[in-house]
Amino acid sequence: MEPSDISLIPVLGTPAVSPDGLRAVVAVTRPDLEVDAYRGELWLVPTDGSAEPRRLTRGPLDSAPVFSPDGVWLAFVRSGPGVKAQVHVMPISGGESWRVTEQPFGAAEPVWSPDSSRLAFVAQVEEARGNEEDAKRGPRRVTTLRYRWDGVGFTGERFAHVFVVDPFGDEPPLQVTEGDFDHGGVAWSPAGDLLAFSAARHPGRGEDFFSDVWVCAPDGTGLRKVTRTALTATQPSFGPDGGLVFVGADPGDEGRRLIAQVGVWSVPVDGSVPARRLTDAELHNMPSIGNERLAVPAKDGVLCAVENRGAVELLRVPYDGGEPVVVVGGPREVRGLGHAGGTTVAVVCDVSSPAELVAVRDGVEVRLTGFGAGLEVLPIEEVNATAPDGYPVHGWIVRPEGAGPHPVLLMIHGGPFAQYGWRVFDEAQVYASAGYAVVMGNPRGSSGYGRAHGAYIVGDVGRRSAVDLLALFDAALATGGLDASRAGVLGGSHGGFMTTWLAAHHGERFRAAVSERALNAIDSFHGSSDIGWAFPFDLYGEPSTWAHQSPLTHAGRITIPMLIIHSEHDWRAPVEQAQRLFVALKLRGVVTEMLLFPDEGHDMSRSGRPSRRIARFDAILDWWQRHL
Fold first, then answer.
1. What is the phi-psi region of residue 517: left when phi exceeds 0, alpha when psi lies from -120 to 50, beta otherwise?
2. How far apart are CA 543 and CA 298, in angstroms?
3. What is the DSSP string of 600-626?
4. d(CA 340, CA 65)
5. For residues 54 and 43, is the Cβ–Cβ distance under 8 A?
6. Which of 181, 362, 401, 472 is deepest in the core (most CB within 10 A)?
7. Which of 91, 100, 85 lies closest to 170, judged by CA?
């Protein structure tokens, strides 16, 4: 895989399944290198696998398809370079689409009423101050801890509200919700008499991560809270009995805990009893994959995606909270799902393809697509290690072609409560294709191995993580074909934190390092990051320990060449984190370079402008070429 081959990697959105379960529509998005943007199209595929997918739309950037309950219409969101996203509708049998909304800041999340006559959607509304240009606006008055968000901007200036519109008429949309609150995840009740959505409307909402499930009539009357402001509640849906299920996590008594097992919960629509968790709080964590729906009610239980040792399985969890059933399992990852008419359609990634659709009906699984067929990938090899205390550490090797010995990279994921897994990962493929073996794994602190596995590193993050990472690295080296004398270490976000830490404490193991979008100094991160007011307490514990746990504190021990990569608009790990490390190393004469990307946030390597993603790959490969 070459850096420019990112254009061959399809990203599939949440699939829409027709009411009879016989067809599915999915948005397929890829980088378009010619225009240096992303192109998204909608594809229709029969769920029995009897025919190849057929393209329904040509974008420029189409997403979020949803079938009308009568099976006649398809609603979706269309946007493009310089064009705000708006809801469109088209006949599923073919024909031209028409624009339904003209919201000044765009529209999202369309969902049909049960009688197929109306659409609910979410759109931002600016507060009464007016629509001033940024260059001319006055100062911002900040009064809450949550006042900006990476990749979004300053909050509290535009609020996301629920609207309802007749897509076949001429009347303007009806704004259902009001106030200085954000709303999302809207769903219709089976009878069409209620809308459910999530929102943080409680006092103190700018100081915590609580959110609730709310319901009201489609005209906005009868608004009431269903949950009890004790959870982070998102993506509500109505079950077959009219009750509500939602995706949620427990943010702690003060609502400021970010590291928590995400699961499926249920609550009666009248809110008469507290919400009840259906998934196992110790074992099951649901991944965070953008806005994709990862929990869908079905007849016999809630379909939900949960992490399991590098895999993401699709489970069916009974409504009574009984033992779940694996619907889609094995060494692969489920990254989106839809269900209707007795058919489940899931987006599945594995070690041979970045993303495809599979359908499951009556226990029989059928692969429906071959969107990733144009990409040639190297195989992934499982490796198991044992830490000095006897704890198992799980990971993988992606090897270059040929016998070796190959230079080797220890690659560390972010989070840290996240996981590497059984899928085509562009980073590993590009580096291995260039001749570098890639070792990657899930040390303690990662998700997918139970709550205790993730919590182990709290309060001693660098030291405890390093023990597991080096155990995995040594186990990979013991498999043969890898050159330990030509080793590098790299990672982003928490992976960048650990890269800087390892360069300081175990630099003799590596010739060079690449620390990207890293948290290097906990003290300044605490005040400058969009989550800094809460996250450090979760992970690093008492502030009196932060200096010792900060990689920057130990930068005086770094002697190996260091490439620092950061985005200028990163608000998760602000650019000062990179600048402080760069200055500390340069003043000591360490071979150090800093690569700064304009107009990008924390997720640049995954969703940034395609030309910048390629430039980043090129710079990293150049660094390894020079130093390994």
1. left
2. 46
3. --TTHHHHS-HHHHHHHHHHHHHHHHH
4. 14
5. yes
6. 472
7. 100
- pLDDT for the residue numbered 6: 97
Structure-token pair, residue 503? 């360069």
Cα first-last separation, the chain? 20
Residue 290's contacts (CB-CB under 8 Å, 6 or more residues apart) are none
**How far is Cα 272 from Cα 265, in angstroms, rounded to an integer?**
15
Give whole-number Cα distances, 357 to 17, 352, 375, 444, in Å. Answer: 12, 13, 16, 32
Cis status of the peptide bond prior to 416, with omega within 30 of 0: yes
Take residue 83 and report the two structure tokens written for it: 């064009």
Token pair, residue 91, equals: 């006949």
- DSSP-derived letter for residue 399 is P
Classify the C-alpha dihedral 595-597-600-604 as positive or negative.
negative
Q: Residue 147 burial by CB count (10 A; 0-12/13-18/19+): exposed, middle or buried?
A: middle
| Burial (CB count <10 Å: 0-12, 13-18, 19+), residue 593 | middle
φ, ψ for residue 411 (rounded to 5)? -110, 130
pLDDT of residue 115: 98
Q: Give the DSSP letter string of 458-509.
A: TT-HHHHHHHHHHHHHHHHHTTSSEEEEEEEEEEETHHHHHHHHHHHHSGGG
DSSP secondary structure letters along 528-585: HSTTTTTHHHHHH-SGGGHHHH-GGGGGGG--S-EEEEEETT-SSS-THHHHHHHHHH
Q: In whole angstroms, how large is the CA radius of gyration of the chain?
A: 24
> Quick one: pLDDT at residue 618?
98
C-beta of residue 145 within 8 angstroms of C-beta of residue 208: no
The closest alpha carbon to 270, from 247, 297, 242, belongs to 242
Below-50 pLDDT ranges, the chain: 129-131
Alpha carbon distance 238, 223 (integer Å): 17
pLDDT value at residue 51: 97
Contacts of residue 169, Cβ cutoff 8 Å, sequence gap at least 6: none
∠ CA 563-569-572, nearest 5°, is 80
- State the Cα–Cα distance between residues 77 and 100, nearest whole angstrom: 10
* CA distances, 75 to each of 343, 529, 545 (Å): 20, 37, 52
Nearest to 75 by CA among 116, 115, 106, 39: 116
Contact by Cβ (8 Å): 517, 570:
yes
Beta bridge partners of 312: 307, 333
Number of Cβ atoms within 10 Å of the Cβ of 183: 25
Q: What is the DSSP string of 48-69?
A: TS-S--EE----SEEEEEEE-T
How far apart are alpha carbons 355 and 179 in whole angstroms? 40
Amino acid at 470: L
Please give the DSSP secondary-structure letter assigned to residue 423.
Answer: S
H or E segment and range at residue 526: helix 522-528
Helices (H), 357-493: 426-433, 451-455, 461-477
Q: Helices (H) and strands (E) in the chain — how many of each?
A: 10, 39
pLDDT tens digits, one per residue of 208-241: 999 999 999 999 999 999 999 999 999 999 999 8
Write down the residue that tokens 């489970």 correspond to: 315
**Residue 130 confidence (pLDDT):** 45
Q: Which of helix, strand or coil describes residue 521?
A: coil
3-state secondary structure of 550: coil
What pLDDT, on the 0 to 100 scale, is given for residue 282?
95
pLDDT tens digit sequence for 255-274 = 999 889 999 999 999 999 99
- Cβ count within 10 A of residue 111: 18
Q: How far apart are CA 513 and CA 426, in angstroms?
A: 19
Alpha carbon distances (Å) from 381 to 3, 57, 439, 447, 465: 22, 38, 10, 20, 22
